[in-house]
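Quick one - first record:
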Amino acid sequence: MTGFDVVIVGAGHGGAQAAVQLRQLGFGGSIAIIGDEPELPYERPPLSKDFLAGDKDFARMMIRPATFWAERNVAMLTGARVTKVDPEARTVTTEAGELHGYGDLIWATGGSPRRLSCEGHDLAGIHAIRTRADVDLLKTELAGATQIAVVGGGYIGLEAAAVLSKLGKSVIVLEAMDRVLARVAGPALSHFYEAEHRAHGVAIHTGVMVTAISGENGRATGVVLADGTRIAADIIIVGIGILAAVAPLLDAGAAGGAGIGVDVDDHCRTSLPHVFAIGDCAAHDNAFAGGDHIRLESVQNANDMATTVARLLTGNPRPYHAVPWFWSNQYDLRLQTMGLSSGHDASVLRGDVASRSFSLVYLKAGRVIALDCVNAVKDYVQGKALVEAGAMIDPVALADASLPLKTWHPG
């Protein structure tokens, strides 16, 4: 058995940031990162954008070069999946049977893509976009494909649709809800993106349910909808969210739910002693969601939670309190989101949608809770202070795009 002062399970953004922050804050103990992929930590957002398009080499996606980890004495245990946690012995066990002891454990595993559960879900030619291996496999099949069905109209599905459309593929997006981006944005933004994709030749179908995948010789050949419609497809991409990868923690007695996440407090502590969880897999009470218990799937959340744990372990604790932010690149549109719009009861448009540069400001009980900014960087940057303060602004004045949002900055 090998032992480390801190073992980090998960080599994504959160896991990497935890190790980086520990060293930057002066932590002198031993650190190991255990990741189930063969690669060192790399950026995930480009997978459905630049990397899929072939515009970004994998080497440019590395969070830090290999020399960085070696110079800071961070042991990188790649290609190892942790399957068991023993909180009493303070050990983790990998799928290969390797045992590693820890003083403190940071769980940063993210999640696995939700899979279709219908007939034909296990046929070849059905792809997720979560890891480098996922996209490498998808890219090998693209050359021989002309028709592609994307199941799911969230960020991943729409980003992939934009890339594949630019590559000359015939793309159809199938979304179960009545609009794309329904879980993360208001109707106005959804309709804008639906129109943009259609203008680029992508077919968008909302309110449709996939009930089966048709196939031939073990390979998917199309999608069958609830109304009996059959859609031919050479490749099917599924982007319908993730399931939090927390089974070993739950098996060890941690509070949480299968696929839902492991519960953490405002210092990212689980209910198990000396065990923390951060990033996509960590369910927490979020002040910017009205105190609701949620998971946030974002680089920001992973990095900020990692910093929260590193501060605690180095004797300078600060509760997690960070404004959520997200981004999405589709075609020549850069969507930047500040805050969480769920639960809003009003929205204000700043700018002209037709100009393809505008912002939507979301209000709840008169207070600013979030912004969606399309090619509007100034609003995005200046809007953070308004979300943090829950600013109350006259909607008529807020709609005047000639007035910069910093006009209403507190103080």
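second record:
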Amino acid sequence: MESLKEKTAKGLFWGGMNNGMQQLLGLVFGIILGRLLSPSDYGLIAMITIFSLIATALQNSGFSTALVNEKEPKDSDYNSVFWFNILMGASIYIILFFSAPFIADYYHEPRLVTLCRYAFIGLLFSCSGVAQAAYLYKNLRAKQLAKASITATIISSCVAAIMAWQGFSYWSLATQTNLFILISTLLRWHYSDWRPSLQIDFSFVRKAFPFSVKILISDVLTHVNNNVMNILLGRYYSAHDTGNYNQAYQWNNKCTSLIQGMVKQVDQAVLVSVRDDQERQLAVLRKMVRFAAFISFPLLLGFGLVAKEFIVLAIGEKWLVSAHYLQWLCVCGAVAPISVLLADLIISRGHSGIFMGATLALGLLEILAMLLLYPYGIHTMVMAYVALNLVWLFVWFTFASRLTSYTLLLFMKDIVPFGLAAAGVMIATGYLTTSITNLWLLLLCRVVLAAILYLLVMKVARAKILDETLDFVRNKFKR
């Protein structure tokens, strides 16, 4: 029987494989779609994304997290969550269907009425897959989740690219999302052993409600926090401006999701399984934090280093403004996976109220800051957004430290060496390549040189996490 360490390692591997493939596919199709579509096309989709995200959170209502947080969920628990999601999904879609004119009025954009009604159809597809996804996640079936997501990404992205090529503009982006949700939901059913029954019992929903409602509110607030710029830019600026920012946000999100998705495949399930042994739970958390820092700092700071070359070469000079936003977003993106780990530790200890409160405070501060700063331009808003998210890493740590014996000294020892190493490598790489004028050569040299220098620094510093990662990958490919 596999040990917890082996299950965690496999989960991280398949989580990394899943997110690595998805981000690679996202890179390829992001370039294709970025060249075929305009900033305004992306801007229209960015304006309504927040409504889809909030609707999905309401549909789920935190019960997926509650299932994962349950030590041994029963069949009836999954069944009650399944039927609750079906009812919520259908109800929310009907509400959004009739709310579409009001959304269009808020943004002063009549085209959003029909677009909203089409784009929100994904809610009807996703509501039947929440319980199945929770079952696979709870049982650490990361391989199956990876297969479902990768297959859905390939098919939906191919269809979107063809539609964009044929001139369907923003409809291609809406179709991509709907098709991804439909295919991934069908495949989760295929891979899951659990099936719902007509014996409807909402006992688990009632029991888990005090915990799950806090997760629900937190999820809604997180989506608002992440999309506050799109919400306000769509209101006070043009669809073109919103699209430029959203392009930068999406590329930054692809990188952060690569690490976040890798650890989130297993982190909460593993942390819950060892929460009765606080010393062991802290050891597990610290190893995950070191792993996230080891990967996240060089990846995001490196992406910021080559942002201009990448954007211009990949999707064209029409997106050059996005490159400047991306450089700033990569700074807070570097710490985002670590913040997620600390937040999941808080949830795994049953303190969803703390998670909700901290998320609410961040959201309110972001909204206040953006409302005060929007007259000073988008660059100023982006810098304020980045600063707040950097500060909030230590807010998450403060709450996590109160629940564990994780001291500030230990936390800094776990993340600062990787942060300093990555920052030093990027500064050195930037300095050594300043004389290169050809963009293709500059991009290649910066990527290769930064990767070599970072690995050398890790080797010289004898970073244990590097050896463990390399050993696991070697063993995986020997099998």
